Amino acid sequence: MDSEYNPIKIFSGNANKPLAEKVASYLGIPLGQAEVGRFPDGEIKLRISENVRGLNVYVIQPTNAPADNLFELLILLDALKRASAASITAIIPFFGYARQDRKVRSREPISAKLVANLVTVAGADRVVAIDLHAAQIQGFFDIPADNLTAMVQFAQYIKRKELEDLVVLSPDVGGVARASTFAQTIHASQALFVKKRLSPDAVEIQSLIGDVRGKNVIIADDAIHTGNTMLNACNRALTEGAKSVIACATHAVFAGDSLGLFARSNFSEVIVTDTMFVPGREYPSMFTVLSVSELIAKAIYSIHNHSSVSALFQL
Ligand code: R5P
Question: Probe ligand 1: pick from 99, 224, 248, max atoms within 8 Å of CB?
Fold first, then answer.
């Protein structure tokens, strides 16, 4: 999947190099050469090691914590812009700093808008993300922004299991559209929990809309941070009579030691993706990690060849 006269160039910082390498390998090209290191005091020191003048380039870098991941992305974009790349697409598999996307209380920031501004000012001409915390964040960018979804991949995986009596459950109101894509794709029914967030690490499931009794329930969410949402939703679904519960979440954050809580949970399987990378992390045996590399590679190929990316939203 390469064109001799219009080569695809992919660069990556250190946030998720394994994913960038998989994408490059899928496209049959080497990863672009860049030195993304540190000064002795810890500041980021960066140099693009090959010519990019006049080329359309793609940078793959999630912006989950620590903030160095975001900063590496910004500095990469700046370097590519100053090296005269013809166009720069920022592929942000996990768009971090997205949860503060509106002022819920006075004197709060809108961090998602700030990060969108930073990415644009740094030099991005286009942004591609996967399962944004809220789809409206696309509108925070005044450049083209595509919000891909891993829900189709989850659906493909679940379909192969040939389970019956499936219901896709969104653990909160904000995730209904996402769960709906999933449910429609596998022809399952839908349910919804009304969730109240009490604090960043505490949630309360208040009520169930829909029916999970006797069903194999798939809880679909954009992210697992502390795990409170998923774990509470699993227990409540079982209390409501669910036969089994599977978790599907795109971004596998697992703050603190929350991964261990899942190993001891009532989930029959937890399915996540590789949008973010945590060196040394080992997943318990009930986890399945699907790669978003093919999804990103196909998006790059479509953008590069000015064709539609809408096929990526279908099974
Ligand atoms: C919330 O709106 C999101 O969709 C996720 O449900 C949330 O980020 C999960 O966080 P936690 O794992 O800390 O409950």
Answer: 224
What's residue 181's pLDDT?
87
pLDDT band for 5, please (50, 70, 90 cuts). low
Rounded-to-integer distance, Cα 255 and Cα 226, Å: 5
**pTM of the predicted protein model:** 0.96
Between the alpha carbon of residue 124 and those of residues 76, 281, 300, the distances in Å are: 10, 31, 14
Q: Which residues approach ligand 1 with their CB closer than 6 A?
A: 171-172, 174-175, 203, 221-229
CA distance 250 to 38: 30
Nearest CA to ligand 1 atom 5: 223
pLDDT of 203 higher than 50: yes
Question: Is 17 marked active-site?
Answer: no
Catalytic residue among 22, 195, 215, 298: 195
% of the chain with per-residue pLDDT over 90: 94
Q: Is 136 helix (H, G, I), strand (E, B) or coil?
A: helix
Alpha carbons 128 and 26: distance in angstroms, whole number: 18
pLDDT at 201: 86
Structural domains of the chain, with CATH? 9-150+294-313 (3.40.50.2020), 151-290 (3.40.50.2020)
Number of CB atoms found within 10 A of residue 296's CB: 26
Q: Counting atoms of ligand 1 from 1, which one is nearest the CA of 171?
A: 6
* Torsional sign, CA 85, 87, 93, 96: positive
b/e map 24-35, b = 16+ CB within 10 Å: bebbebebbebe
